[in-house]
Structures are given as structure tokens and as C-alpha cells.
Design brief:
Blueprint: E1 7-10, H1 24-32, E2 42-44, E3 47-48, E4 52-53, E5 56-57, H2 58-77, H3 87-107, H4 109-132, E6 141-147, E7 150-156, H5 165-197, H6 205-252, H7 259-268, H8 271-300, H9 302-310
Parallel strand pairs: 1-6
Antiparallel strand pairs: 2-5, 3-4, 6-7
Amino acid sequence: MAGAPVVGLCAEGAGAAGQAQPTAPEASEKKEEHGLSAYAVPLWNPELPGIGHFPITNSMLVTWIVAIGVIIFAQLATRKMEAVPTGAQNFWEWMVESLYDFLGSILGPDLVKRTFWFFITIFIFILFTNWFGLIPGVGTIGWGEETAHGFVVSHPLLRGGNADLNMTFAMAAIFMVLWLIWALRSNGIWGFALELFGPKGDNTGFIKYMMIVVFFAVGFLEVISIGFRPISLSFRLYGNIFAGENLLEALSRTVEHPAWAKALFSALLPVPFYFLEILVGLVQAFVFMLLTTVFTALVCTHEEEHGKEHH
């Protein structure tokens, strides 16, 4: 992460990063840059048949590492299931059961069975991706060059996965596809249209027709707000994680001279904020999961409520 000592590899010896070397004007601009770059760095850019170039970025590498790590941990924790869980199995069951009960109170017993797999996956993945970005070396080990301010890493080998807007937007887009599937499955096409544009409440006479016009107009506003949901979800997560990484980077560069003070304070100043970022990583994972849960509940749970009223 940004608060760790900077370790670099010679750019001339980096074959994998050779394709990602900036041009002369870009290099001069990067020398003046401070903090984490807003763009992920391609580490490898293979050409796939029928697809073309498919760049593998440093943020993609982090997400793969986290995904593999979570899968391995889950397999090890549940390899030998015990009636009285201990250790990793106890932690895993506690987390899954706690979230299942919490989400069940929002979604209801039927809907949570169909959707829990997504919400628990997105929470665990975002959480550990956020925390992985805090490991010293992420963002500070890579290829770079000597500048007037010392060695600057311009092409880090690893980058926080959620500090890449492509990653957060992809997760938000996947949720919106699933949200539409769940909404249509719960309401049907006609019921989904009524949910957006249909009048609410039991009105009669002239008021009823007025409400039809009002709620039809409100439906268009609702469609616009639904269209902005993936944008708000992705930018909220990306903005908080990206800002946190830049904060640690700035603190690590607060003291530049003398050399001994720079070495000392670049390691000590970010430490209190590391604990803050650990909390932020947990909160942001929970917020993303909670918002997607509420969006799903708003469009799907009313069907169950109406059914209970008729019975």
C-alpha cells in the first residue's frame, strides 16, 4: 500500500511491463504526478483469437489473487465439518449465518434463499479486496525511474482492485442484471411495469385518475434513478477506496528531508490511518451489500406482502 517503503524494479528489465511504458510526453507528466494514478497499468496485453488485444492489468491481478485466496480459505475451513465448529469453520459459519439472518430480515425467508449467494459473495469479495490493498507493497512494488525526489514507481505490479473504477462498475452492472432478473421473476413483466408506473393506494373518482397521471410521471423518474444506480454504487466504492489509498500515499511523503526523517516518518505517519482504512474497507463492503439488498427488496418483497394479505 501507499504507506509502505517504495520498492522498485528497473523499467528496462521489465519485459512484461514493456508494452505499458509511457511515451515521452506522458513520462514527463507522470514525473510531476503525486499519489496513486487514476488508471490501472496493463502488465500483459495478449491478443486472443476473435477478440483482439485483452490487457491484463495490475488491478485484475489483485482480484484474481483475492478470489483464489477466498476459495482456498473456504475449502480449507469446510474440508472437515464438525458438529461443534472451531477455528476457521467457526468463523466461516458465524459470518455466513449472521449475514443470512440479517439479510433475511430485509428480504424475507423466500427471497433470501434465492439471492443470498450473490450478497454474501459480493460482501466477502469486496471486503478482502479492500483489505488486500492495505498490504505493504501493493502499489509500491513495481517498475519506475529515478527522479529529483527519488525513485518513483510509475508501473506498480499490484494495485487495489476496488481502486479501479472498471472493477466497481463491473460489480454494479452484474448486480443490475441480476436485479432485473429477480424483479421479473417476482412480478412478471406486467407486474414490473405496474410497480414502476402504476398508481399506489386505494383512490376513487377523480382523484384516482389524477393519481394515474402523477404516478405515470413518477415512473419515468424512477426509471432514471434505476439507470443511475450502477453509477452511484460504483463511484461510491471506488471513491472511498481510491481516496484512502491516496491519503496513505500523501502521508508517506509528508517528510522529504533529511533522509533519516523521511525513512522514519514515511513508515510511522500512515500507521494510525491504516486502522481507519481497515474500518473503511469493512464499512464500504457492508454498504455495497446493504444497498443492493435494499434495491432488491423494494422491487421484489411487495408480492409476498400482498399474498399474505389475501390469505
